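To make this tangible, we now present a fold written out as tokens:
***
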Amino acid sequence: MSYQDPDVHTMTGIDVSSYQGKIDWKAVKEDGIEFVMIRCGFRDALTGELFDDPMFEENVEGA
């Protein structure tokens, strides 16, 4: 089953973090990805300490 509405435009995106490792951003674009959500960091569930995602800056530059 599908629904189509000429007034609605969908976009394809991905979310990335250090877990994906080094990303080939050229390949991402060639695959038709239109947006990226990039993790900047996280909070430790037990201590509440904040941590930066080590790939954040590289992912922002690449995207």
User: Anything to note?
Assistant: The chain has one domain: 13-62.
